[in-house]
Specification:
The protein is of the alpha+beta class and 392 residues long. The chain contains 17 helices and five strands. The protein has helices at 2-15, 45-56, 111-123, 127-139, 144-159, 163-175, 180-184, 198-211, 217-233, 238-247, 258-272, 279-291, 297-311, 315-331, 338-351, 355-366, 373-388; strands at 62-66, 69-80, 83-87, 93-96, 103-105. The model is unreliable at 1-17 and 19-57 (pLDDT under 50).
């Protein structure tokens, strides 16, 4: 309201005639009288038009919808550390990840007409139409908006099954001035076909071109990870050659996301299961255990236990193999991986000659409320085998 009054007062000052000028004696010179208007006195036309404009122009406000939170009356102001930054109606500055936002409405014209329509299409599940509108808006986008639109295009292209376009835009996000690797590490495409296709080939080519341009460390890690993921899931023979590079990657804090470590876990499984275990592979596994998000830790612990158990040749080796299994079972006792940890620890006890204690652990494993059918089947078979074995 203050803003409206100040604008109105300035226009009134410009349209209301000034007071009569004084003569040399200091007396006001009389004005020449004007004939009365035919329909009486009426306000200035400019003032009337201005009042109508101010009264009908709404206050511009953006909108961000994410989960149960609907931030109306907001103002998007930029990006910070890969996150969208906006001021909510209560005046607070908030930073949110773009992949967690369901809908963005930008209260501006021009390219944002296409962007807003794309957001509506994307939220309604019409991803193909959303990709077209995002593309139109992106071509004219400037400043941080180009990175915002690139992130949203990755999500829409992935939902539309356009792997090549999703990867092309993910490269833009990773190289972007405002979004960068932190945002890219959260939005790896998931719609990867089971077999090689034209789209998967073009996606790999996008990543190879990006890798050839000497990217920074975080960008290089992301491009290597995604390249391996596409090759592996499409059954491309080049995945085996790429796996050792993935095993040796050490992730910086900015890109330590579950999406990143899920790919490294698959690469470690492929590499560690290929034959003799190299010290560098165990070092990569230990780095992942040290750095990965807590939600991923049980899977890496189980992989370490399985690897040490498979390669154990002495009693001490077997004892070392038991620790990762027990850590997964004890520290994550309510997780789906806890029964697998109990099962692995039982196998260790069986090999050191403590079959009685192994049977107890198997009973605990089978009683766990989150045991999978696969683990149940293998645990029941091991239980039958151990109970029927002769006493030591």
């Amino acid at each position: 309201m203050t803003c409206r009054k100040s604008i109105l007062s300035r226009f009134l000052a410009w349209t209301v005639p000034p007071p009569p000028a004084a003569d040399c004696d200091g007396h006001a010179r009389p004005r020449r009288s004007k004939p009365a208007a035919r329909h009486g006195n009426r306000p200035s036309t400019v003032v009337v038009l201005l009042i109508g404009l101010v009264a009908t122009t709404p206050v511009r406000a953006d909108q961000i919808l994410m989960g149960e939170f609907n931030y109306t009356g907001a103002r998007i102001v930029g990006m910070e550390d890969g996150k969208l930054r906006f001021r909510s109606a209560d005046g607070a500055l908030r930073n949110v990840w773009l992949d967690e936002v369901q809908l963005i409405f930008v209260d501006r014209r021009g390219i944002f007409d296409d962007f807003n329509q794309a957001e509506k299409f994307h939220a309604a599940g019409q991803s193909d139409r959303a990709v077209v509108r995002y593309g139109r808006a992106f071509r004219l986008a400037e400043d941080f908006w180009a990175d915002v639109m690139a992130v949203r295009m990755v999500l829409a292209c992935d939902a539309a099954g356009q792997l090549d376009n999703a990867v092309m835009n993910l490269v833009r996000v990773a190289l972007g001035e405002y979004a960068g690797p932190a945002a890219a590490a959260r939005i790896f495409p998931g719609a990867i076909p089971e077999k090689r296709s034209n789209r998967s080939q073009r996606a790999v080519e996008h990543l190879q071109r990006a890798l050839s341009k000497d990217p920074h460390e975080n960008q290089l890690s992301l491009f290597e990870l995604l390249r391996y993921e596409i090759l592996s899931r499409t059954g491309d023979a080049r995945a085996a050659g790429a796996a050792p590079r993935i095993v040796g990657l050490t992730m910086s804090v900015a890109i330590r996301t579950p999406e990143v470590y899920a790919i490294q876990l698959r690469a470690l499984r492929e590499s560690l299961g290929a034959g003799e275990v190299e010290p560098s592979e165990l070092a990569g596994l230990n780095h992942a255990i040290r750095d990965c998000p807590r939600a991923m830790l049980p899977d890496f612990l189980l992989l370490k236990g399985e690897t040490l158990l498979r390669t154990a040749s002495t009693r001490d080796d077997l004892i070392r193999a038991a620790w990762p299994f027990l850590r997964a079972a004890i520290h994550f006792r309510d997780s789906p991986q806890a029964p697998e940890g109990l099962y692995g620890a039982a196998l260790v006890l069986e090999r050191v000659g403590r079959t009685d204690k192994a049977v107890d652990l198997l009973a605990e494993c089978l009683a766990h409320k989150r045991i999978s059918e696969q683990v149940r089947t293998t645990a029941e078979a091991a239980q039958v085998r151990m109970r029927s074995a002769p006493p030591p």
